[in-house]
Design goal:
By secondary structure, the chain is mainly α. Helices cover 61% and strands 4% of the residues. The chain has one domain (31-503): Ribonucleotide Reductase, subunit A (Orthogonal Bundle), CATH 1.10.620.20. It has helices at residues 11-19, 31-34, 59-82, 94-122, 126-154, 163-166, 174-184, 188-208, 210-217, 221-251, 255-284, 292-311, 321-328, 332-342, 356-365, 370-386, 435-443, 445-448, 454-459, 468-475, 490-503; strands at residues 350-351, 410-411, 414-418, 421-425, 428-432, 484-485. The strands form three sheets. It has a two-stranded parallel sheet. A hairpin with a 2-residue loop joins β2 (410-411) and β3. The longest helix has 31 residues, at 221-251. The chain starts with 10 loop residues before the first helix and ends with a helix.
């Protein structure tokens, strides 16, 4: 008997069968009741089948692809750990940079895993749900591999023992945590803009490329391998975020102002989080690949500028905050490192004053600002340290209600004046570090009045009690061992001793 044999399906057709064919229109309950959250933000979608999956990954292809990456990653990690690779980094100061990274990022990746699982459940479009499912798997993989990478350092160095406990208790860690708390409590479409665009495009380009290159340059093979393994996933995630933005804009013209407002908000929120990366790149890498200013110009001004130019045809405009962020590329790393130095008793890492050679490097990289505004401060603090008068700020700083940084940033047109804004709302006063954080608050005040800010909570006795000693116990910190000056620290002494043992003939 003759049989009709269909020609082999193309990848696009095969993917469509394996995704679109998994959905159905509900009958015993209305679709709006099954999927109540993909309309309440005001986004109008007329045809979910118009969603295009940029990579068209099927589950079987995904597992094969990721399994191969896992084999390569863990082979390198095992070799690095067994050969005591942590002793091959340029300087034990470098370990403090990855203390910040591994204290914050694994839990943020896990929140991203939860967020994409939630968003996937809330979208009625099948292709969108499959894309969210695969990214959710990516995010939990990143959390796991980061924790595995950090575990080797945690065996030998202080400050990484309680990162899950400290995430919402440490002032500098509450900054990225608040970013994800803000995103996951939005609707599914805002989540896709916040994470798929702001986090994946704006942030990870400036984390997983220049900073991971810095890890490689400083001999940290483990972190470098993880970073570049993750970046191949981030490329897919960026594309997913951009596809979602284009999908919304193509579906209905009424979506444009909503999407524009989200892009404005999350571009600023993302650039604020990046101040942590700026300080790590300019001050915490003993051997530097590039300055934060150079990284910003390459990965945001050039790459981001091309992105916004591409979105112009949909009516999207470059956010107003980009002008301020571009001015701040000269300043934020210096301002944040100064804050970390003077409030170091409330951190889980060590700080130090840049050496004369490092000050010269910063002067060369920031010729328009460093010698005028920041070098004199470091030289003064260095002299005070020599005289036994190490500068400490024992007061608790006012925090921004939105981004949760202390009030350490300056006016865009005056680097000598701290920027401070106030808003009265329901007989309470709220404080902000910038016009853009203030505008975000004024658009959604009820969301941000609920923010849990570590320093005000300390004054209220909600951080273990009313004193500093109680705070240290509450946050699981050992003063002087987990923080304060690197010079003379246990980490510095152990590294020197172990390094000497590894290179001696005895």
């Amino acid at each position: 008997m003759d049989m009709k044999v269909d020609k082999k399906l193309s990848l696009k057709d095969r993917y469509r069968h394996q995704t679109r064919g998994l959905g159905w229109e509900t009958t015993y309950q209305p679709m709006d009741k099954v999927f109540p959250y993909d309309k309440y933000e005001g986004i109008k979608i007329h045809d979910w089948d118009q969603w295009e999956d940029p990579f068209r990954l099927t589950m079987d292809a995904y597992w094969k692809y990721q399994a191969e990456k896992e084999r390569k990653l863990y082979a390198v990690l095992d070799a690095f750990n067994q050969s005591h690779g942590h002793l091959n980094v340029t300087d034990a100061r470098y370990i403090n940079a990855i203390k910040i990274f591994f204290s914050a990022f694994p839990m943020l990746e896990y929140t991203a895993h939860r967020g994409f699982s939630m968003a996937g459940r809330q979208f009625r479009g099948v292709g969108t749900r499959v894309a969210c499912q695969l990214q959710s798997l990516d995010e939990i993989r990143h959390a796991q591999t980061q924790i595995h990478t950090a575990s080797n350092y945690n065996k030998y160095y202080n400050g990484m023992h309680a990162f899950t406990h400290q995430l919402e208790r440490m002032w500098y860690m509450s900054v990225p945590k608040s970013f994800f708390d803000d995103a996951i409590t939005g609707g599914p479409f805002e989540w896709m803009v916040a994470i798929g665009f702001s986090f994946e495009y704006v942030l990870t380009n400036l984390v997983f490329v220049p900073f991971m290159s810095g890890a490689a340059y400083n001999g940290d093979l483990g972190t470098m391998t993880f970073g570049f393994s993750a970046q191949s996933d981030e490329a897919r995630h960026m594309t997913l975020g951009l596809e979602c933005i284009k999908f919304m804009l193509e579906q209905d013209p009424d979506n444009l102002p909503i999407v524009q407002a989200w892009i404005d908000k999350w571009t600023w929120r993302g650039t604020r989080v990046l101040a942590l990366v700026a300080a790590m790149m300019d001050y915490m890498l003993p051997k530097r690949v590039m300055s934060w200013k150079e990284a910003w110009e390459i990965y945001f001004e050039q790459n981001g500028g091309a992105l916004f130019k591409d979105l112009e045809r949909y009516g999207i405009k470059v956010p107003d905050c980009v002008a301020q962020a571009t001015v701040e590329k000269e300043h934020i790393s210096h301002q944040l490192w100064a804050a970390m130095y003077q409030w170091n008793f409330g951190t889980a890492f060590h700080t130090w004053i840049p050496s004369p050679e490092e000050l010269d490097w910063l002067s060369a990289k920031y010729p328009n600002s460093f010698d005028k505004y920041y070098r004199p401060r470091w030289e003064l603090w260095a002299q005070m340290e020599k005289e036994g008068k190490r500068h400490l700020n024992t007061g608790l700083a006012q925090l921004c209600q939105v981004c949760q940084y202390p009030m350490i940033f300056t006016e865009p047109d005056d680097p000598g004046k701290l920027c401070h804004r106030e808003v009265d709302y329901k007989q309470e006063k709220y404080h902000f570090c910038s016009d853009h954080c203030q505008h975000i608050f004024e658009r959604e005040p009820e969301k941000y009045v609920q923010a849990w800010l570590p320093m005000p909570q300390f004054y209220q006795g909600n951080c273990g009690g009313g004193g500093v000693e109680e705070f240290f116990k509450w946050v699981h910190l050992v003063p002087g061992q987990d923080n304060m000056d690197f010079e003379g620290s246990q980490d510095q002494q152990n590294f020197a001793r172990w390094k000497g043992m590894a290179t001696s003939n005895q």
